[in-house]
Amino acid sequence: MTKLVVVSAGLSNPSSTRILADQLAAATVTALQAGGAAVDVEVVELRDLAHAITDNLLTGFPSGALADAVEAVAAADAVVAVTPVFSASYSGLFKSFFDVLETDALEGKPVLMAATAGTARHSLVLEHAMRPLFSYLHAVPVPTAVFAAAEDFGSRGLAERVDRAAGELADAVLRRPRLKAADPFEDVTPFEDLLGA
């Protein structure tokens, strides 16, 4: 079972950030299923975790639903990460969530980055803020990142970008070698050999 975790940092309800996150998740599921994978999707809505994230920054420990979200991201085969743009960068809530993850939580993990804003002037946030963040975290951002300004919703161009990025994420997941869990009893000396020595 392929586990896809969608991290959405939208603050309003309903949120254009969540709408884009849902579109990316649906397209990724379709692409993964076309490649023969069974998919389990979990959505992490950061708006609901804002207080717990702040508590974690102060105490150093996640609790409750935040601990579950941190564990989900660490166990994911792939992540879709979507943020609204504030002051020409990702939101503080978005950054704070990735700050509380363990340092190796995203190591080698395929990530599809996306952002929303009121105007297309903020589209470079994907390359100037998000890609460096995920590279620093040793994630593997897919080549196509998706930006959606208010006027993009419902446009054919956005749908095409969503499908392209989702296809790249699915391809990265399907081609990624699966690590086999180590068997603790694989290299055990039989008891009779221990007695004979």
What is the secondary structure topology, with strand pairs?
Elements: E1 2-8, H1 16-34, E2 39-45, H2 50-59, H3 64-75, E3 78-86, E4 89-90, H4 92-100, E5 110-117, H5 125-136, E6 140-141, E7 146-149, H6 156-175, H7 191-196
Parallel strand pairs: 1-2, 1-3, 3-5, 5-6, 5-7
Antiparallel strand pairs: 3-4
Helix pairs in contact: 1-6, 2-4
Give structural notes.
The protein has 197 residues and is of the alpha/beta class. The protein has a single domain (2-196), classed as Flavodoxin domain (Rossmann fold, 3-Layer(aba) Sandwich), CATH 3.40.50.360. It contains 7 helices and 7 strands; from the N terminus they run βαβααββαβαββαα. It has helices at residues 16-34, 50-59, 64-75, 92-100, 125-136, 156-175, 191-196, and strands at residues 2-8, 39-45, 78-86, 89-90, 110-117, 140-141, 146-149. Strands 1, 2, 3, 4, 5, 6 and 7 form a 7-stranded mixed beta sheet that branches. Strand 5, helix 5 (125-136) and strand 6 form a beta-alpha-beta unit. It is globular.
